Automatic annotation (TrEMBL):
<feature type="transmembrane region" description="Helical">
    <location>
        <begin position="119"/>
        <end position="140"/>
    </location>
</feature>
<keyword id="KW-0812">Transmembrane</keyword>
<dbReference type="GO" id="GO:0020037">
    <property type="term" value="F:heme binding"/>
</dbReference>
<dbReference type="GO" id="GO:0046872">
    <property type="term" value="F:metal ion binding"/>
</dbReference>
<dbReference type="InterPro" id="IPR001199">
    <property type="entry name" value="Cyt_B5-like_heme/steroid-bd"/>
</dbReference>
<keyword id="KW-1133">Transmembrane helix</keyword>
<dbReference type="GO" id="GO:0016020">
    <property type="term" value="C:membrane"/>
</dbReference>
<protein>
    <recommendedName>
        <fullName>Cytochrome b5 heme-binding domain-containing protein</fullName>
    </recommendedName>
</protein>
<keyword id="KW-0472">Membrane</keyword>
<dbReference type="InterPro" id="IPR018506">
    <property type="entry name" value="Cyt_B5_heme-BS"/>
</dbReference>
<keyword id="KW-0408">Iron</keyword>
<dbReference type="Pfam" id="PF00173">
    <property type="entry name" value="Cyt-b5"/>
</dbReference>
<dbReference type="InterPro" id="IPR036400">
    <property type="entry name" value="Cyt_B5-like_heme/steroid_sf"/>
</dbReference>
<comment type="similarity">
    <text>Belongs to the cytochrome b5 family.</text>
</comment>
<dbReference type="InterPro" id="IPR050668">
    <property type="entry name" value="Cytochrome_b5"/>
</dbReference>
<keyword id="KW-0349">Heme</keyword>
<feature type="domain" description="Cytochrome b5 heme-binding">
    <location>
        <begin position="5"/>
        <end position="81"/>
    </location>
</feature>
Length: 151
């Protein structure tokens, strides 16, 4: 969404109530869930029941995750006239940012872990070699000393 979100009043939202065109309002955001109907883990039925309406109460009653709040931003097409950047709305913005941030951190740690594994692999390979050469050197030099002492 750009700087100036489109404003739709509830009577406009109420025109979008079908499986092929399904909008609802959550916390003053107008959400077009048409493409999300089949993906919704809670099923498409609940979304269709709330279509065209303010579904804030239903949405919050479920205790949706941060990721779900983040998805609201993805499907947002506008706002209702009373929309203010309240704390709730800001939390949704943060959830959206957080989802992106988490993906970024995850990639970072995956790369880090990978390095660690590679480093471990090298130690596992080199350490037995070092121990074996030490043992060999010890035996060999002890043998030499022994030989020198008998001479
Ligand atoms: C009337 C509005 C809504 C109702 C009544 C509703 C209901 C539900 C229910 C019952 C579940 C739980 C499914 C389970 O535990 O197996 C669920 C999960 C979920 N819903 Fe909704 N939902 C609504 C709107 C939305 C919207 C608009 C989005 C996002 C655009 C969304 C995203 C999710 C996600 C991602 C989950 C998976 C669990 C989680 O991450 O919280 N829902 N929903």
């Amino acid at each position: 969404m750009g700087g100036n979100p489109r404003v739709f009043d509830l009577s406009h939202v109420a025109l979008h109530t079908t499986r092929n065109d399904c909008w609802l309002v959550i916390n003053g955001r107008v959400i077009d869930v048409t493409k999300f109907l089949e993906e919704h883990p809670g099923g498409e039925e609940v979304l269709l029941e709330a279509a065209g309406k303010d579904a804030t109460k239903e949405f919050e009653a479920i205790g949706h995750s941060k990721a779900a709040y983040g998805l609201l931003l993805k499907y947002q097409v506008g706002v209702t006239p009373g929309f203010k950047h309240t704390n709730a709305a800001r939390a949704e913005d943060d959830a959206g940012e957080d989802t992106k941030a988490r993906a970024y951190v995850m990639t970072g740690s995956a790369i880090k872990d990978d390095k660690k594994i590679r480093c471990l692999g090298a130690i596992e390979f080199v350490l037995p070699l070092v121990v074996a050469s030490f043992a060999f050197w010890y035996r060999y030099s002890a043998g030499l000393t022994g030989m020198m002492m008998t001479e």
